[in-house]
Amino acid sequence: MPTEMQIIYAKAATKALRTMDAKASQLIRLKIRQYAADPASLANNVKSLKGVDALRLRVGDYRVIFTEDLVVLTILRVGHRRDVYD
Fold first, then answer.
1. How much is the pLDDT for 49?
2. CB-based contacts of 41: which residues, under 8 Å, 6+ apart?
């Protein structure tokens, strides 16, 4: 069984998670950990972004913008879907 990816949060992502609703923040962190443990489990909620070398994870009305290699999952931005792509 493959090992879980290491999760690294960028400063902007950490700040966004701290300032948002606690319940939403908790759900987003749970989904990020779930993706790190088993990427196939959330494959239908992950898409490549056009124009940038990043992926997005959909969690309700929120989006997590991240990059990944085989061992590290780097969370770049977290935010509401209307704001996160700016």
1. 94
2. 34, 35
Burial of 64 (0-12, 13-18, 19+ CB in 10 A): buried
Quick check: 13 and 77 in contact, CB under 8 A? Answer: yes
Residue closest to 36 by CA, chosen among 77, 10, 72, 9:
72
Nearest to 59 by CA among 6, 2, 13: 13
77 residue type, one letter: R
Residue 62 — φ and ψ, nearest 5°? -105, 155
Whether 46 and 38 have beta carbons less than 8 Å apart is answered as no
Q: How far apart are CA 49 and CA 73, in angstroms?
A: 16
Block means of pLDDT (10 residues each) for the chain, 86 residues, are 83 96 95 93 94 94 94 94 86
Which pLDDT belongs to residue 85? 81
* pTM to 2 decimal places: 0.91
Paired tokens of 21: 């609703």
